[in-house]
Specification:
The protein is α/β, with parallel strands linked by helices and 278 residues long. Helices cover 41% and strands 17% of the residues. It has helices at 14-25, 56-60, 77-90, 111-121, 142-150, 167-179, 198-209, 220-228, 233-247, 257-262, 269-276, and strands at residues 5-9, 29-34, 44-47, 65-68, 95-99, 124-130, 152-155, 161-162, 186-190, 196-197, 214-217.
């Protein structure tokens, strides 16, 4: 099927870069939006900054669908994003796909408010709600750094399990949600094929790399205080609270959404480690 032009916001980020690459590989036209208009192979780079509405017009020119990555670290993304989405609708965008989180329901805090607004703004939409990224252990996340530096993963998750998902699978679902003839018009909770504890993660990384990795358990308070040294106190408390929710079982689930939308199973964590850690 032929589609129009997709604006990918955050086109240099973890899911945005992969979504851009998959769209362009399939022959779709893409405007790759980033703060610096960074060149992206196969796409048209365009400058975009959530906090500078003057960048909106050129980014939206000729676009009929958009992949939305919320502004990073923003406690009230709706205040920033909804004015842009109104502009997008009036400029001809008819499909919007939002990256949210499995931890945030429609109408919930932060990006949950944007999720709630989508059906009233666009006839065609989807809210992707992925679990925690497998790339947290291989990229630039704190877990990846601590694994590389001293073979530890620090969390307050206790024995709680998470259906970690490969960012490549998130991107594949995003491409389907953006380009399939029928939009999902719902939210999609995305997980990998298994729920793993952080002890499981440490064991798999150890087996694949041959370097010992251990999971060190912290209390909620210890993790909050540790993060407060690096982040604003409210954000540190929120992240520590997410770990506490995992400990209580909030993320102990798997869904078949990746298989259902893409026609192939979600990738396992061991496969990601073998691909990105060896």
């Amino acid at each position: 099927m032929t589609t129009g032009t997709t604006l990918v916001i955050g086109a240099t980020g973890t899911t945005g870069s992969r979504t851009t690459a998959q769209l362009t590989a399939a022959g779709h036209r893409v405007k790759a939006a980033s703060r610096q208009a960074t060149p992206v192979s196969g796409a048209e780079p365009v400058r975009f900054d959530w906090y500078h509405p003057a960048t909106y017009t050129a980014a939206l020119d000729g676009v009929d669908r958009v992949y939305l990555i919320p502004p990073e670290g923003e406690s009230d993304p709706a205040a920033v994003m909804l004015p842009f989405l109104e502009r997008a609708r009036t400029s001809g965008v008819h499909r919007a796909v939002l990256l949210s989180s499995s931890a945030i329901p429609e109408g919930g805090p932060a990006v949950g408010t944007v999720h709630q607004a989508l059906p009233d703004l666009f006839e065609q939409w989807a809210a992707l709600r992925p679990s925690w990224f497998m790339q947290n252990f291989t990229g630039t996340h704190a877990h990846a750094h601590s694994i590389r530096e001293d073979g530890t993963i620090w969390t307050a998750t206790d024995n709680g399990r998470v259906g970690f998902i490969d960012a490549e699978d998130i991107a594949t679902v995003a491409v389907h949600a953006l380009t399939d003839q029928q939009a999902p018009n719902t939210d999609l909770v995305l997980t990998g094929p298994e729920a793993l504890s952080y002890d499981d993660v440490a064991a798999i990384v150890t087996e694949v790399t041959g370097r010992p990795v251990v999971h060190r358990r912290l209390s909620y308070e210890q993790l909050r205080d540790r993060l407060t040294a690096l982040l604003p106190v409210e954000f540190a408390a929120m992240l520590a609270g997410m770990d506490r929710a995992i400990a209580e079982g909030a993320e102990d689930r798997v869904t078949d959404t990746v298989q259902r939308l893409t026609g192939r199973p979600a990738r396992a964590f061991r496969a990601l480690c073998e691909r990105e850690m060896r």
